[in-house]
Amino acid sequence: MAIERDLGRPVPKTNWPLPIRKPHSGRYVDLELLSENHLADLWPFADAAPESFTYLRYGPFTDIEKLRSTLADLSKRPDQPFWVVMPKGRRPQGWLSICDVYNKDGSIEIGSIWFSPTLQGTRAAREAIYLLMCHAMDDLGYERLVWRCQAQNAKSFNAAKNLGFTYEGTWRRAAVVDGWQRDVAWFSMLKDEWPQRKAALDQWLSQENFDDAGQQIERLEMPTG
Fold it and tell me: Concatenated DSSP letters for 141-201?
């Protein structure tokens, strides 16, 4: 008699494409591949807000040459493409990446996000993340999109929930950053959840949802379940 086993969910694919190093453009923001050419534009924002690097493994920067060195490193990582975030008609104000790509498991992550305080909380910031979500789920067809942050990082923790990611749990004392032992919180969004999450984000990002001053009319409401 055969023994029935629950082996999970069958998936016909065994390999997913790697992220494509290309620009992305939305209603309110453009994403260009990060390079040292963005140094002069990014430096005033990085210099003015050293506290904005608290939960990253690089920064803050005591001088422009240290930022140049970091941009050189980030922009040349072979398996982690970075994009610079440019609100329409304005200079770059941050960056973000696609990282920890498990292309044989269908899992991909958006991470290493640095947004200057002037960019944080804006529709341009949310759309920047949305554009990479679309790239991962629509262009590349991944099964699982990951958001990971230090559990002490309340802004990132709340951003994950607002974007429609599901909290999976916290790995205790999982990372050491700047001499501090920190917990790491994990979130995910699955392929079959994405269409509803995308529709909610797309509706919130519509131009009709913002007044002449750029303030939202309706809050972002994510479907439950």
Answer: --SEEEEEEETT-HHHHHHHHHTTPEEEEEEEEEEEETTEEEEEEEEEEETTTHHHHHHHH
